[in-house]
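Appendix B. Raw example, untouched.
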Amino acid sequence: MNTEKIWFVTDASAGLGLVLVKMLLDQGHKVAATSRDGDALLDAVGAKLEGRFLPLTVDLADERAVRRAVAAAAAAFGGIDVVVNGAGQGQQGALDSLSDAQLRVSFDTHVFGVANVIRAVMPRMRAQRGGHVFNISSILGFDGGSVEWGAYSAAKFAVCGLTETLAAEAAPLGIRVSLVYPGALREGMPQASPESAARGGQGYVQGGDPVKAAQALINAAQAQYAPLHLFLGRDSFDQARSKIQGVQQELARWRELSVSIGFMDERRLAA
């Protein structure tokens, strides 16, 4: 059985994206990958793989550039089977200290960049009646209680809402959609990721293994039933479970007030 797929991976010059690209190529897949610096991406991958690897220089906030990149990937490989919208970088700072421009950069990177890719790939996937889109959010996009990461959390929460809607719209077309919530990853980066920084001093300093995280994405792409919500890392899993338990407790505690605003059924009162 031929399991080779054509992958389009954004923000792939470092971290999880770079690890994923290398692993995909090692496993025989074809990969188009974007970075703000395509030459640096080629150097980082460290291999000449003509016919199987296409590095692309793209600013994801530029919709025209994204469309050109998607068209180039489809032309080079004959289509696109799997899209991975990468994580990007976070803007740290208390919400009342961040400028409007700083907040907009966070949304341009994480939300509008993802939307640009989706707009470019969906017509192709719709025509082929299949495909798989992975949108990388963050555990901070599920639980926003980390001080000084509000801009990043807000953008990643937006990615979650966008992705859940995309999943509902894409399912009748045979297109699978997965929303990924990584926790802290041990990426060897000179600057800690938002997830790692938010976990500092909370027992998860080492972080998860990015190689295992990349393989988890590949496994999910090959699974018969794709997950809509995929939490990566013990810290991510535990934090999500704690958030869910907290919401359940508040639902129970405030149920009477929550449901009290409904209109009374006058027919029942008359009876």
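End of appendix B.
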